[in-house]
Amino acid sequence: MHWTLAGVVLAAVFISLAGSNRQARAGFPFFSRKPDCWYQSRAAEPVSTRQKYYKGKYWPPYSRPNSRPTGPELPWIHRFHGAHYWPYPYNYEDRFIVRELVRRQVANGWVVATTLYDYHFDPDTNELSRSGRIRLRWILENAPPSRRMVFVQATDPKIASQTRLESVKKEMVRLVGADDVPPVMLRVTSPLARPAEEVRAIRDAELQSQPEPRITDPINSGSGGEETEL
Fold first, then answer.
1. Which alpha helices (DSSP H) does 114-186 contain, by range?
2. Are residues 179 and 155 part of one domain?
3. What pLDDT digit, counting tens, does each position of 178-203 carry?
4. 132 forms bridges with which residues in the sheet?
């Protein structure tokens, strides 16, 4: 049998590939092998493309500080894993952010709903007014147990804030008893709405300031049998 130089080279290549599958060697990405510890050390690296500078341009150009990973490119198998399971793990991060935002909005909404503001108290005595007692009763009857906490808007002087707290506690004891009184605390805030009396006064002033209609009804403004010219 006569062997050519090309045949000898090809035979040597195939023999080396078949006989040393478990040995670490460099080469085409499909055939290169490295120790498992090397892949594990890079398993937490993000899958985004690294920005590079080439021929006067950044590739890709849309990169902000600390927003794109740097360093060597990912191993081929890691890039394949990221493309195969995309958008994992970023979809879980997005879901967490949305759910956390909704949770905070719900919590803030309940804080607003369970707050007694200035217009719930008498301006002279700082005792609960009738609207304040109605609002407090609504909180005790409708707020879920996890949200059943009463906030009282703080005011100056401090003695006035303490008077408000005592008035609220006294009313809650009357409604639910001393053993079932929920927590009460001061809150530095401002009203997000207007008192009902102020809303009514604004509406009455608006109605009284409206001018008389200046455009008459053309159908009923004519006299006798004369036709009204439109």
1. 130-142, 158-176
2. yes
3. 999 999 999 999 988 777 788 889 99
4. none
